[in-house]
């Protein structure tokens, strides 16, 4: 069973918010599509795993583990009484060849450290096990969930470390076999893992505020050209209608990822939305959807939810009002 939700990674949310408010540089566009592509691969992996079933095992998704003062990210950790397996998910497409340890697309060498990344991640899990003086198996596989990916290798041992889309169903199926279960030992491993989970420490965006377009934008088409009525904003470009609160949740989520770990006052948010809504509306939304930190005369607000999607799922906004597309 999946222990935690797979949320969009911080970097993807950052680039989504950035792309909505400025034109991306070439480097940024490339990074944005890499993160988007990676997340899509992880969703393919989850969907297939779901369709096959995973009741006998415990699965952590997209977690950061701190082991011996260094932090490593894991796409998927599969735990049973037999031990723990790290799955490094790579949404590669097209044809790749590995010759003498180097990766090529056609005849062009491409930088890739997928195997060393996997080895490092598995090594860290072994370190975790050894430090805890525990006894369980640790292994890992590179998983390529995209069926358009074709792999050639002169080194037979590479194949043992990877699962292509054509073999993924069988790979998942083995966790459904009798004899695989999440009993005491799996519970122990799971506890050990959860004790080492930390926040993503690598995410530290530095954004030049002057590049950003402030204001509210349509959730459907991205246009900043909105028409205000009492409770709603209507997009003048595509006609989509969204409740004021929806817009504010989106703005607070954007703010969180663009100015990560920076405090947000009511004025900051007002400026960020270019005063598109009345300050009383902002105050109400802040009280409802944020934790309040009062320090002297300075009150700052911390968004209660992980991101906009999480807010939409958890908030009761949508029980009372419906947005129209
Ligand atoms: Zn629109």
Q: What is the name of the CATH architecture of the largest domain?
A: 3-Layer(aba) Sandwich
- The residue-averaged pLDDT reads 93
Order of helices and strands: HHEEEEEEHEEHEHHEEEEHHHEEHH
CA-based shape: globular
- Bound ligands: zinc ion
The level of helicity is 25-40%
Q: Into how many domains do the coordinates divide?
A: 2
Report the end-to-end length measured between terminal Cα atoms. Answer: 35 Å
By DSSP (H or I, 4+ residues per run), the number of helices equals 11
Rg over CA atoms, rounded to whole Å, is 23 Å
CATH topological fold name of the largest domain: Trna Endonuclease, Chain: A, domain 1
- Uncertain ranges: none
Quote the beta fraction: 15-25%
Quaternary organization: single chain
Strands, total number: 15
- CATH class placement of the largest domain: Alpha Beta
Provide the structure class: alpha+beta
Strand arrangement across the biggest beta sheet:
9-7-3-2-1-10
- Give a short account of the largest sheet: 6 strands, mixed
Give a quick summary of the entry.
This is Acetyltransferase-like isoleucine patch superfamily enzyme. It comes from Jeotgalicoccus coquinae. With 325 residues, this protein is α+β, with helices and mostly antiparallel strands.
